[in-house]
Automatic annotation (TrEMBL):
It catalyses: [(1->4)-alpha-D-glucosyl](n) + UDP-alpha-D-glucose = [(1->4)-alpha-D-glucosyl](n+1) + UDP + H(+). Its EC number is 2.4.1.11. Transfers the glycosyl residue from UDP-Glc to the non-reducing end of alpha-1,4-glucan. It holds the Pfam family Glycogen_syn. Belongs to the glycosyltransferase 3 family. It comes from the Eukaryota. This is Glycogen [starch] synthase.
Length: 254
């Protein structure tokens, strides 16, 4: 089956969509007008639903895409809460936000699946990783169903940072018919090592990454980041220095 690659549908996935928690919020927000200009209604951002910020950041509206509506109705019937509308920024892009807490009872099953499918461990008490796994499975579910229904156009899914990227190894394993892009803004281990007193860049090739991430209690997060970097179709970084980090620490040249 051939999809139309000249008029693709683009989904951009990030933890900071309509959710001001870090610097990537500014990156996503500032590039949205250009992307809307290029893609129009073929562009949708996906993020986690934070009720406090969403109320101020977006304006809910009915889901106009029939395919998306059918999937979201089905997800609603299975207890998943979500919000759809327009982000109140320049360009007013479509946004879809998933409430990860609404599906919390599936966490243990999904963590077991993640270990079986991708060999990614997840300790019991890391809330951030738990949220990333719940979000990743919701995104993989939504996009998997989407490409099964929308069969005429090519679909691109662009993920930012490890928190949003758990879906990438899942969709690779499931052979989901779309193209994935993973962008890392700074590697996990790089952040920690730069914050320490180590001469990081001159010794970058000498680090045992597994050991260093283990010592800092971030090995499982690193596994998600590395899996995303290796399972995506296109791997990008935002700067030359991050590219250098990624090549040595994630073992793939962007």
């Amino acid at each position: 089956m051939s999809r139309d690659v000249h008029n693709p549908l683009l989904f951009e996935i990030a933890w900071e969509v309509a959710n001001k928690v870090g610097g990537i919020y500014t990156v996503i927000k500032s590039k949205a007008p250009v992307t809307v200009h290029e893609y129009g209604d073929s562009y949708t951002l996906i993020g986690p639903l934070n009720y406090k910020t969403a109320a101020a950041e977006m304006e809910p509206e009915p889901v106009s895409n029939w395919c998306m509506k059918e999937i979201l109705d089905d997800m609603t019937s299975q207890g998943i809460k979500w919000m759809y509308g327009r982000w109140l920024i320049e360009g007013a892009p479509h946004v879809l936000l998933f409430d990860t807490n609404s599906i919390f009872e599936r966490l243990d099953a999904w963590k077991a699946d993640l270990w079986n499918v991708a060999g990614i461990p997840s300790p019991p008490n890391d809330q951030e990783t738990n949220d990333a796994i719940l979000f990743g499975y919701l995104v993989a579910w939504f996009l998997g169903d989407f490409v099964a229904k929308e069969r005429s156009k090519a679909v691109i899914a662009h993920f930012h940072e490890w928190m949003s990227a758990c879906a990438i190894p899942l969709m690779r394993k499931r052979r989901t018919d779309l193209t994935t892009i993973f962008t890392t803004h700074a590697t996990l281990l790089g952040r920690y090592l730069c914050a320490g007193s180590i001469d990081f860049y001159n010794n970058i090739s000498k680090f045992s990454v597994d050991e260093e991430t283990g010592k800092r209690g971030i090995y499982h997060r690193y596994c998600i980041e590395r899996a995303a970097a290796h399972c995506c179709d296109v791997f990008t970084t935002v700067s030359q220095i991050t590219a250098y980090e990624a090549e040595h620490l994630l073992k793939r040249k962007p």
